[in-house]
Amino acid sequence: MKITDVAGKIETLVDSLRDMSPTRVRSSFSDEHVSENDDERSSWIALHPSALDMFDKIMSDAEGKQIIMFLDYDGTLSLITEDHDKAYITDEMREVVKEVATYFKTAIISGRSTDKVQSFVKLTGIHYAGSHGMDIKGPTNPDQSNQEEVMFQPASDYLPMIDEVVNVLKEKTKSIPGATVEHNKFCLTVHFRRVDETGWAALAEQVRLVLIDYPKLRLTQGRKVLELRPSIKWDKGKALEFLLNSLGIAESKDVLPVYIGDDRTDEDAFKVLCERGQGFGIVVSKTLKETYASYSLQDPSQVKEFLERLVKWKKQTLGEEEEVIHKID
After folding, report:
1. Are 108 and 127 within 8 A, CB to CB?
2. pLDDT value of position 186
3. Are 163 and 193 in contact (CB under 8 A)?
4. What is the pLDDT at residue 139?
5. How far, in Å, CA of 318 to CA of 28, rounded?
6. Catalytic site includes residue 85
7. pLDDT less than 50: residues of the chain
């Protein structure tokens, strides 16, 4: 990445971060907003209807197909928290995800390191793709579902650099109250949820200085985070495609991939599903925003409800199939 490109991005970064701030969002689903936003909200919902309201249609479209579940972690399975180290999944959500994985091939694709996500979720028998899909592990042998094995690490050559930059980044940002740096193995996440808005520009400038010294890294942003990643063509969408290929079902017409996520990094996966013309994304958001997702849910509690209904639907379907077999016998 050229220095001028980095500087150009940083120049508009603070305004972008302000636009993403909960205090400045254009509109949301809250009843507190004035009626002038009703038309805008109605138009958005028409394009991205509630996955709960459309559940029967979704299941009708899934009839006869193998559903593959892809799930983001923060903001999807867990609430967004002030302390990123305390974004714990609830026991109830863990149990639901466990049931989902019992009936459907399931993967969790997160910006967190794979080890961190595994420590939060504590479930075996599913695929984990941490660092935005740059560290993929999973039960590669169906007969050994309790053994998670490394499947793919496209940025492994960057590990020494990442280990070096994390210390530089911590040193550069330590003077900014509330800023923290999280080492997510193949990417570095700068959290500024606890940083006063007046300090955002200074934080962005420090990140810019690091990027100048390490041009092989690129800058991305998410919900109250800035991230430094290897400059390779890899993201959550690429991870989704890799997993479909590794499962041997990428070319199958009888597969329905479903991706649920809340962050702008999840848009890469939503876009892949749109371009494939197969499967769909569900965006988790209370605010109106541009998205490639076909459906929407408002928060992790609605994600949990959707997953519960999915499991119930599958159990009912299996029960009906068994009943038909018994009648034939």
Report:
1. yes
2. 97
3. no
4. 82
5. 39
6. no
7. 1-4, 6-7, 22-27, 29-36, 145, 326
**Strands (E) located in the chain:** 66-71, 105-109, 127-130, 135-138, 149-152, 180-183, 188-191, 217-222, 225-230, 255-261, 280-284, 295-297
Give the predicted TM-score (pTM) of the model.
0.89
Q: Cβ contacts of residue 12 below 8 Å, gap of 6+?
A: none
Q: Tell me which of 5, 72, 213, 268 is the catalytic residue.
A: 72
**Torsion angle defined by CA atoms of residues 118, 300, 229 and 122, in that order, rounded to the nearest 10 degrees:** 0
What distance in Å separates the CA atoms of residue 124 and residue 117, rounded to the nearest whole number?
12
- Tokens linked to 209: 């200085």
CA neighbor of 1 nearest in space, from 251, 218, 321 = 218
**Strands of 105-109's sheet in order across:** 149-152, 135-138, 127-130, 105-109, 66-71, 255-261, 280-284, 295-297
How confident is the model at residue 38, as a pLDDT?
86
Q: Which residues are registered as beta bridge partners of 43? A: none
pLDDT of 58-77, one tens digit each?
999 999 999 999 999 999 99
Amino acid found at 263 = D
Helix (H, G, I), strand (E, B) or coil at 231: coil
Interatomic CA distance for residues 287 and 301, integer angstroms: 16
Q: Which two tokens stand for residue 91?
A: 């026991």
